[in-house]
Design brief:
This protein folds into three domains: about 20-275, HUPs (Rossmann fold, 3-Layer(aba) Sandwich); about 340-410; about 420-465. It is built from 14 helices and 16 strands. The chain has helices at about 40-55, 75-80, 85-105, 120-135, 210-225, 235-250, 285-290, 295-300, 315-335, 350-360, 365-385, 390-410, 420-435, 440-450; strands spanning about 5, 10-15, 25-30, 60-65, 135-140, 145, 170, 185-190, 205-210, 225-235, 255-265, 265-270, 270, 310, 455-460, 460-465. Strand 3, helix 1 (about 40-55) and strand 4 (about 60-65) form a beta-alpha-beta unit. The structure holds adenosine monophosphate and zinc ion (ZN).
Length: about 475
C-alpha cells in the first residue's frame, strides 16, 4: 500500500513519493535553546521520530537534519538577563536537549547544525545577498535587511493568508508575529544595544540573522534545494515556515518542500501549557515524579499527531498499564518461541493484524489504528496461549513481527539493573539446580520473590524478571 500523509500545504492527504527513489530528505525545526525543552516540544520531536522510524520500516533511507536555534530574540534576551555570553548561556540547554532525546529514545538526526556556526552564518549572509541582488530584499532605514513579501506572490499560501488584505509597506522586526501584523520580515537585524556582544560582520554592517533565514540556510545547505518533508509544530506554520518557503524559493527557484507536516499542540490537563498556569512540564519534572522516558514517549506517541493531545497524569498512568500489558505478552510469546522442540508451524496469514499495524501507519501515521491492531493481536494470541493453541512457529513469527513493531515504536522495556542481592541469590540457586536440590531451589525462589523479582527456568538457564 502506498504511504500517504496529510500535507499542510495542500490541506489534503497525498501519496508520499520521495524525490530520489528510496531516500527521504527530512528537515525538522529544532529547539530554541534558551530554556529546557518542555513536553510540548517533545510531542513534535516524538512525532517526527515516529515518522522517520516508519519510513525506515518501509525500507526508505532517511537523511534528517534538526537545527539548534542558538541565536534569536529569545536566546539573546535570556543571555542578557543571565549576564552570560550567548554561547555560555545556551550550552547547558543544548546538553540537556541531547540527554532528553536519549531519555525519549528519539533517534539522533544525521546533522544538528547550530545557527551560530561560522559556516552557517556565512551561508545565511550569502542567501540574503542573493535575495537583495534579485530584488526580494532591501536594507531599510533602521539598517536591517527585510524580505519584500510583495515580491513573492505565493507568500501566504501555506498559512492561507490573502496578501491583498495586508497593510502595504508594513515591516516586522521581531522573529514572531501574528497574522494580523503581517509585513516584510527581517532577514538580517542590525546590531543594537540590546544585542550586547552578540553580532557578526556582514555587507550590511554588524548584526545577526533573523530566525527564519537560519532554517532556510541550514536546510538547503545540508539537504540541497528541495526537501521531501519539512516538519514542525503547528505554531511554526506562520510566520516561520511561510518565511522559509519565501526565502528558499526566491534563492533557488525551486519548490522548497514537497510535504509540510505539522503536529497539533499539546495541552496540559485541558488548558494551554504555560509557566504562569503552573502546568509547564519539562521531561525532568516528570522523571522526578517517577515516570520513565518510555512512559512519556508512549503517552506522547499514542495520539495521532494531527489530533489534539491533552497531557494528563492519568494519561501517563494509562501508558504505564498499556506497556505492562505489552511486556507481559511479549515475554509470554518469547518463552514459547524459545521452545525449539515443537515443530515450526503457523503462518503470518493467521494474524491479519500484523499487516494492519504497518498499513495504519502508512495512512498518515494513524497510530490509533496501529495500536488497536497491536492490542487486538495481543488479546487474540493471549486467548490462544491460555488455551494452549499457540505453537512455537506462530510464536516465532509473532516475535519477529514484534521486533519490527519495536523498531517503529521504540517502547521495549528499560533494561533494569539486577540488584546485587538478587544476583547473589541467583548464583546460589544455580548451584542448587546443578546439584538437583529442587527443595533449595524453591526456597531461594521465594527469597528472590520477597525482593520483588521472579525467576524462570529456561533451557538457557535462569531468567530473572521484575515481579
Ligand atoms: P521552539 O523551541 O519554540 O522553537 O519549538 C521547537 C518545536 O516544538 C517546534 O517545532 C514547535 O512547533 C514545537 N512546539 C512548541 N510548543 C509545542 C506544543 N505545545 N505542542 C507541540 N509542539 C510544540
Ligand atoms: Zn525552523
Amino acid at each position: 500500500m502506498a504511504i500517504r500523509f496529510f500535507n499542510s500545504f495542500s490541506r489534503q492527504v497525498e501519496e508520499f513519493v520521495p524525490i530520489e527513489p528510496g531516500r527521504v530528505r527530512l528537515y525538522t525545526c529544532g529547539p530554541t535553546v534558551y530554556n529546557f525543552a518542555h513536553i510540548g516540544n517533545f510531542r513534535a520531536y516524538v512525532f517526527e521520530d515516529l515518522l522517520q522510524r516508519h519510513l525506515e520500516f518501509r525500507g526508505l533511507r532517511v537523511t534528517r537534519v534538526m537545527n539548534l536555534t542558538d541565536v534569536d530574540d529569545k536566546t539573546i534576551r535570556g543571555c542578557r538577563a543571565a549576564g552570560l555570553p550567548l554561547a555560555e548561556f545556551t550550552a547547558p540547554f543544548k546538553a540537556a536537549f541531547f540527554e532528553d532525546l536519549d531519555t525519549l529514545r528519539i533517534k539522533r538526526a544525521d546533522h544538528f547544525p547550530e545557527a551560530t556556526a561560522a559556516d552557517q552564518i556565512a551561508r545565511m549572509i550569502s542567501m540574503i545577498s542573493t535575495l537583495v541582488e534579485k530584488g526580494h530584499a532591501y536594507r531599510a532605514d533602521d539598517g536591517s535587511v527585510y524580505f519584500r513579501i510583495r515580491s513573492f506572490p505565493a507568500y501566504g499560501r501555506l498559512a492561507h493568508i490573502v496578501l491583498d488584505e495586508l497593510r502595504p509597506g508594513a515591516r516586522v522586526s521581531s522573529d514572531e508575529y501574528e497574522k494580523e501584523n503581517v509585513g516584510d520580515f527581517a532577514l538580517w537585524k542590525a546590531w543594537d544595544e540590546a544585542d550586547g556582544d552578540v553580532g557578526w560582520e556582514s555587507p550590511w554592517g554588524r548584526g545577526r540573522p533573523g530566525w527564519h533565514i537560519e532554517c532556510s540556510a541550514m536546510a538547503t545547505g545540508l539537504l540541497g534545494p528541495q526537501l521531501d518533508i519539512h516538519c514542525g509544530g503547528e505554531d511554526n506554520i506562520f510566520p516561520h515556515h511561510e518565511a522559509e518557503i519565501a526565502q528558499s524559493e526566491c534563492v533557488t527557484g525551486l519548490r522548497f518542500a514537497n510535504f509540510w507536516m505539522h503536529c497539533k499542540h499539546l495541552r496540559v490537563e485541558g488548558s494551554k501549557m504555560a509557566k504562569s498556569a503552573g502546568n509547564f512540564f519539562t521531561l525532568r519534572d516528570l522523571m522526578e515524579k517517577g515516570w520513565t522516558g518510555r512512559e512519556v514517549r508512549y503517552a506522547l506517541i499514542s495520539v495521532k499527531y494531527r489530533e489534539p493531545l491533552n497531557f494528563t497524569i492519568d494519561g501517563l498512568a494509562a501508558a504505564r498499564s498499556a506497556l505492562a500489558r505489552l511486556d507481559e505478552w511479549s515475554a509470554r510469546i518469547a518463552e514459547i518461541a524459545e521452545i525449539a522442540r515443537v515443530p515450526a508451524g503457523g503462518t503470518v496469514a493467521d494474524f491479519p493484524e500484523m499487516e494492519a499495524f504497518g498499513s495504519a501507519l502508512d495512512d498518515d501515521l494513524n497510530i490509533s489504528a496501529a495500536l488497536a491492531a497491536v492490542f487486538e493481536l495481543v488479546r487474540e494470541t493471549n486467548r490462544r496461549l491460555d488455551a494452549g493453541r499457540l505453537d512455537a512457529g506462530q510464536a516465532r513469527a509473532l516475535s519477529a513481527w514484534w521486533q519490527g513493531v519495536l523498531s517503529v515504536l521504540a517502547i521495549e522495556p528499560e533494561p533494569e539493573a539486577l540488584p546485587s542481592e538478587v544476583a547473589a541469590l541467583l548464583a546460589e540457586r544455580a548451584n542448587a539446580r546443578a546439584a538437583k536440590d529442587w527443595k533449595a531451589c524453591d526456597v531461594i525462589r521465594d527469597r528472590i520473590a520477597a525482593l520483588g523479582w521472579t525467576v524462570k527456568d529456561t533451557k538457557d538457564g535462569q531468567k530473572p524478571m521484575r515481579a
